[in-house]
């Protein structure tokens, strides 16, 4: 019995610490918002930028993406677009061929073959990188519609500060009004960016590269040998390495891109499972690394460890305790005002997300606030399941010594 | 003579002091007695009676007839003359009583000379009766439900012809009614003194009439789970606790915090499951009563031995009881507190403890549960039928008087419960061991409910335990503990919870402020 109680206490403490951390991130995220909300960008130098767009069966979206990038508000002779056509089986190659003609001289299409392609996004980016000539490398996913000024803002930021290894922009959801799931994802995305990216930047000068809409120095990529092709979430992994070199990664919320989010649970599950496994890979790669331990980036590794192992276990235990308490005689002896704390935690969650939404135009609506109340019991629980699955799948891959099969998010 | 003067002086002085310091002047009572013990018995009967008066808010003094000095009674509102040895009342006292204006109560025997006087009702003594088998009380108030009780022993009863007086209770020997308690003007007569059984209960109830303190009708019974230590069957204990909780019945746990076996002491801290169970029960209806430290001395086994009385030699277990108690009680309280268990009262193992022991307890505990050992030299105890407060022995007594289940004897408890109806503000209880069949407990609980008695909840009262650096207090069901050295896991857990609540609340409030601020400022497109 006492064992059971200890487990419960452990889960309580873990959850409380995470909630506290969330509250702190919200405060700093808001502080950062106040600092940057009226910021004016000045740009006097235009370094050459290579924009990489990996594409694998993207016929539905690629044309729009290329056109949006071509219309970026940046001197046309100071950037190039490199689309990596990674063994597309659909009409992507044809569309890209057409566009290559249209934007001749400003755009390259790099086609992979069976030997150097089909191994996921990190590989595609590395292939593209070889053809890139820019001193700054930008990456956009094939479904993105970057805001015209996005690249300029990113460049302006990285120009100013030599200690910045990379700068990241913000994404918004194009298809947020499609259904309940996309609404949840929209809310999640906004609050994640203000708290985890904005808040973390303000406290630790650290963000996680989100996989799209970011700018990184070419020299850093050369030094670290590009993206880790074994990493399941190559963006998180590279963030850790950039950070461990002593560079900062800055969140620039003015640089906006619009992207598509999964419209059904099946796709959502696959995408998120990859993220989870990617983050766990980072924990796996760096948690026991002695070099890393002296590094500031180790805090982020520990954070992922806390989230995906400890916090996940905690959520699982507390749910188990709750269910067993209802269905069986197994009860915890731990007493006190836990209900009050639970209620406060819920209120804190709603407030944290509400604050993030209030920073965005047209997001702080009655409907969205009702959705936040609902999210705690629905969307958040789904995350629990995905995390558990991701962890399980990662361990299984390791035990069976299997390579992770890269899953590309389906487009709608 | 000098001794008499001194004693009189002390009594006079002490209540002059009392008058000077007390905000409310209490009624004063004098007990004049012939001897303290009945022939062949160990009980200090003067003490048993004096403690019973502790139910009423009075200043009680006692003096032996030998030490009585002329005129002393006039300083008192009530006089009780106790005759335990059948001796005649001294002329000195008789003269005083004739002139006395207050209320006089004669208890026991040897009063035939006095009672035959006109001033005392001119009652005719008819001799001694040895055949009384029943005692009947309140029949005038309850004509159709005359309660009958066996009186237990065959001792004699003084038989008076009560023409002028009002009989309150009487004995029955099968042929005649023999007055037990009767009243004439300011004279009360109680023809027999027993500190146990129905006769004692009747006297206790009639005391409300004699002292003109009409307490409200209110009967309360406690349930106490007895001899709970780390070696009891935890499942059974929990089952009992869960059952009582499900019935909404508050209860006490007589806890023994350390177990001694084969010369080794096992503290309950070593058994987390036990501690957890007690903590669980504590937050689900149980009030903890400290039942000694090990409930044994020397090589005895926990739960069987005596702890604060040496039963083999019939003496206290130590010559320095103060130190002996301090060591054991502090260890016991500490062992509880560091495990998040908060005793609110004390109960000596087997109720065996003497005056020095009580003196120590009175300093550190607000509440004592059980019987009182009413002899300083021998193990004999008295069970009271009501609450007693502010007496020289203890601050507050919650009496146990229904007994316990040891075999198929629940009828004894039922009988005791019937007897409880006599006393208008009856307080009492029974105890139950975890190894007994829970169905006995259920039957008793049902009986108590059928009788319409209320269940007593110790933690609802203002209790305290105060020893060295530890303070425990209860009020209205809340129990608080202060101990500067507490570092226990559980205690800190409560603090952590409080801290977390405060932090979360502050964060939430801060976020509300931010949210309001954020809504009021112009939103920029970032």
From TrEMBL, chain A:
Gene3D superfamilies: Spore Coat Polysaccharide Biosynthesis Protein SpsA, Chain A (3.90.550.10)
Top-level taxon of origin: Bacteria
E.C. no: 2.4.1.83
Residue ranges crossing the lipid bilayer per the database entry: 12-33, 301-327, 339-359, 371-395
UniProt xrefs under CDD domains: CESA_like
Any one GO molecular function term: dolichyl-phosphate beta-D-mannosyltransferase activity
Top EC class, one word: transferase
Keyword flag Membrane: yes
InterPro entries: Nucleotide-diphossugar_trans (IPR029044)
Family: Belongs to the glycosyltransferase 2 family.
Name of the protein this chain belongs to: Dolichol-phosphate mannosyltransferase in lipid-linked oligosaccharide synthesis cluster
Automatic annotation (TrEMBL), chain B:
Protein name as catalogued: Conserved protein
One Pfam family named in its UniProt record: DUF2334
Transmembrane segments: 499-521
UniProt-listed GO biological process terms: carbohydrate metabolic process
Top-level division of the source organism's lineage: Bacteria
Keywords tagged on the record: Membrane, Transmembrane, Transmembrane helix
InterPro entries, sorted: DUF2334, Glyco_hydro/deAcase_b/a-brl
Xref: SUPFAM superfamilies: Glycoside hydrolase/deacetylase
């Amino acid at each position: 019995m006492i064992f059971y109680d200890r487990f419960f206490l452990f889960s309580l403490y873990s959850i409380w610490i995470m909630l506290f951390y969330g509250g702190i991130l919200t405060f700093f995220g808001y502080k950062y918002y106040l600092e940057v909300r009226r910021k004016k960008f000045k740009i006097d130098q235009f370094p050459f930028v290579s924009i990489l767009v990996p594409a694998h069966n993207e016929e539905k979206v690629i044309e729009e993406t290329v056109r949006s990038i071509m219309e970026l508000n940046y001197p046309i002779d100071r950037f190039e677009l490199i689309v990596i056509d990674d063994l597309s089986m659909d009409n992507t190659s044809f569309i890209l061929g057409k566009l290559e003609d249209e934007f001749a001289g400003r755009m390259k299409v790099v086609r992979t073959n069976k030997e150097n392609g089909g191994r996921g996004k990190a590989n595609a980016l590395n292939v593209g990188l070889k053809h890139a000539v820019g001193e700054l490398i930008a990456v956009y996913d094939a479904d993105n519609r970057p805001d015209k000024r996005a690249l300029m803002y990113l460049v302006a930021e990285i120009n100013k500060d030599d200690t910045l290894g990379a700068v990241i922009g913000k994404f918004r959801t194009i298809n947020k009004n499609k259904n309940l799931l996309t609404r949840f994802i929209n809310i999640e995305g906004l609050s994640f960016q203000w708290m985890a990216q904005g808040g973390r930047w303000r406290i630790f000068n650290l963000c996680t590269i989100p996989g799209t809409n970011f700018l990184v120095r070419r020299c850093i990529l050369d030094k670290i040998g590009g993206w880790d092709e074994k990493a399941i979430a190559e963006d998180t992994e590279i963030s850790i390495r950039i950070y461990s070199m002593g560079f900062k990664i800055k969140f620039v919320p003015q640089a906006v891109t619009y992207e598509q989010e999964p419209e059904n649970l099946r796709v959502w599950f696959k995408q998120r499972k990859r993220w989870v496994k990617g983050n766990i890979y980072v924990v796996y790669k760096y948690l026991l690394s002695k070099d890393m331990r002296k590094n500031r980036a180790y805090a982020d590794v520990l954070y992922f460890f806390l989230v995906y192992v400890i916090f996940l276990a905690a959520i699982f235990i507390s749910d188990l305790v709750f269910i067993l308490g209802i269905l069986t005689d197994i009860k915890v002896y731990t007493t006190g005002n836990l209900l009050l704390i639970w209620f406060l935690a819920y209120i804190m969650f709603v407030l944290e997300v509400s604050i993030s939404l209030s920073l965005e135009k047209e997001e702080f609506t009655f409907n969205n606030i009702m959705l936040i109340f609902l999210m705690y019991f629905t969307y958040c629980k789904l995350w629990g399941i995905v995390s558990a699955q991701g962890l399980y799948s990662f361990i299984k891959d390791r035990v069976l010594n299997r390579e992770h099969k890269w899953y590309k998010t389906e487009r709608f | 003579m000098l001794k008499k003067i001194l004693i009189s002086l002390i009594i006079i002085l002490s209540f002059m002091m009392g008058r000077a310091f007390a905000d409310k002047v209490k009624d004063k009572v004098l007990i004049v007695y012939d001897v303290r013990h009945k022939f062949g018995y160990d009980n200090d009967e003067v003490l048993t009676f004096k403690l019973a008066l502790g139910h009423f808010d009075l200043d009680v003094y006692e003096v032996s007839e030998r030490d009585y000095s002329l005129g002393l009674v006039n300083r008192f509102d009530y006089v009780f003359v106790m005759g335990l040895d059948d001796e005649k009342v001294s002329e000195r006292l008789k003269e005083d009583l004739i002139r006395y204006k207050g209320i006089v109560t004669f208890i026991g025997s040897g009063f035939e000379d006095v009672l035959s006087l006109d001033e005392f009702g001119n009652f005719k003594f008819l001799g001694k009766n040895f055949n009384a088998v029943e005692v009947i009380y309140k029949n005038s108030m309850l004509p159709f439900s005359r309660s009958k009780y066996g009186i237990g022993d065959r001792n004699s009863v003084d038989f008076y012809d009560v023409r002028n007086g009002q009989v309150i209770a009487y004995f029955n020997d099968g042929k005649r009614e023999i007055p037990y308690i009767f009243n004439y003007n300011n004279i009360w007569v109680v023809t027999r003194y027993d500190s146990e059984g129905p006769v004692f209960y009747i006297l206790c109830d009639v005391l409300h009439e004699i002292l003109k303190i009409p307490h409200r009708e209110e009967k309360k019974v406690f349930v106490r789970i007895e001899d709970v230590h780390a070696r009891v069957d935890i499942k059974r204990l929990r089952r009992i606790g869960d059952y009582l909780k499900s019935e909404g019945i508050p209860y006490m746990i007589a806890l023994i915090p350390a177990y001694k076996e084969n010369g080794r002491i096992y503290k309950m801290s070593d058994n987390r499951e036990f501690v957890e169970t007690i903590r669980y029960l504590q937050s689900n209806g149980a009030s903890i009563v400290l039942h000694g430290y090990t409930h044994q001395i020397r090589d005895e086994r926990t739960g069987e031995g005596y702890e604060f009385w040496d039963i083999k030699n019939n003496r206290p277990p130590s010559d320095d009881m103060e130190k002996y108690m301090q060591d054991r009680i502090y260890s016991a309280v500490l062992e509880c507190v560091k495990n998040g268990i908060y005793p609110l009262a004390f109960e000596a193992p087997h109720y065996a403890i003497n005056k020095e022991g009580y003196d120590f307890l009175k300093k550190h505990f607000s509440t004592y549960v059980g019987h009182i050992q009413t002899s300083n030299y021998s193990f004999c105890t008295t069970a009271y039928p009501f609450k007693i407060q502010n007496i020289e022995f203890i601050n507050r007594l919650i009496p146990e008087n229904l007994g316990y289940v040891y075999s198929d004897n629940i009828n004894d408890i039922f009988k005791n419960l019937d007897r409880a109806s006599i006393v208008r503000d009856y307080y009492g209880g029974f105890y139950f061991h975890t190894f007994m069949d829970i169905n006995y407990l259920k039957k008793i609980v049902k009986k108590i409910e059928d009788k319409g008695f209320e269940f007593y909840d110790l933690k609802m009262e203002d209790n305290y335990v105060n020893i060295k650096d530890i303070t425990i207090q209860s009020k209205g069901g809340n129990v608080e503990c202060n101990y500067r050295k507490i570092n226990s896991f559980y205690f800190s857990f409560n603090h952590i919870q409080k801290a977390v609540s405060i932090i979360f609340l502050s964060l939430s409030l801060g976020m509300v402020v931010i949210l309001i601020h954020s809504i009021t400022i112009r939103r920029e497109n970032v």
